[in-house]
Amino acid sequence: MEQLTDLKAILHSKRANIYYLEKCRVMQKDGRVLYLTEAKDENLYWNIPIANTTVILLGTGTSITQAAMRMLASAGVLVGFCGGGGTPLFSGCEIEWLTPQSEYRPTEYIQGWLKFWFDDAQRLTVAKAFQQARVDYIRKVWSKDRELQAENIFADDSAIAAALDNYAGKLGSAEKTGDLLQREALLTKQLYRYAAKATQHGDFSRDHDATDRANGFLNHGNYLAYGLAATTLWVLGIPHGFAVMHGKTRRGALVFDVADLVKDAIVLPWAFVCAKEKMSEQEFRQQILQKFTDHKALDFMFEQVKRAALQEIDEVNNAVRGEPVEPQTDGVNKTVRDEPVEPQADDVNKTVRGEPVEPQTADANKTVRDVPVEPQTDDVNKTVRGEPVEPRTHQLDDRP
Question: What is the pTM of this model?
């Protein structure tokens, strides 16, 4: 049991590996998960560091044993069966994963998510916040990545800057998710056109069934991003069906929403760069996974989903508009007591220092009993100083 606990020593947001395997058998041997490749003269075993792995994609010619699945579940690794080259994930056209069920997931994130999800306006606000974060991430990654800049891809290029500014400026005026989807499609086409021109790809048309390198790499990289998104949602305990943008009726659509946070910034430009360099699928996959790690893509996904799930909807609105977010502690007190509350940090400091504190308990007692109660902070001070306290039970008789 201690060994299984150690498998979760690395947080999912800090894990580095995504595996795509084909023509092999995944098994458990000597307390480790291995994959076996069969050659004419010998069989080779390769170790999988499951404690530092988020997703395993099993392609053509693969099988996996029950013992291996047990260890992968213990380490919190998601497993998906897919076609050759990493696409598509099987089970129709939907995003489906074999998620570990050996433990309960946290509940605070799904509870926060459901608070806004059933309200169309609030769900739209979260979708806008995701799109704003997506634009900001593109700017950050393209400004920071010198390898992209060496390929003539710049965040401050006039065409890209104008496209991103225009898209971000129109987010606030969108009245429904259909408006966002239309504007997102337009932005994506502009990004395709820019990346194709920068890499001298010539005329490019996005086609999921096309066989050219650029389209193939886009498909492959997108499914790697879907793996990170599915991991994020599984760790936070949010089902894939509670989408904010891609449609409530499409199962697994929330995976697309979360993956979109990083796809344009990392997968899109590198698909064109790697196509120009005529890289193999394995080389492209290694490049994308390295960029996910360099730019902390998984950390970014966790941050955005947790922020949407836990913050008040007014804070998300302010984030979309670029306004500062006010602390919400007074709002929590007002919710609990339904009355205005003055900050009491000075009283806490006085109590720590042993100084007398002004009476503050009357409001709380009125809320609980609806009866005026005499201040009792002297008793609290006596308790702190170790002095005896007079009984106050007569106040309980004042209740109607």
Answer: 0.64
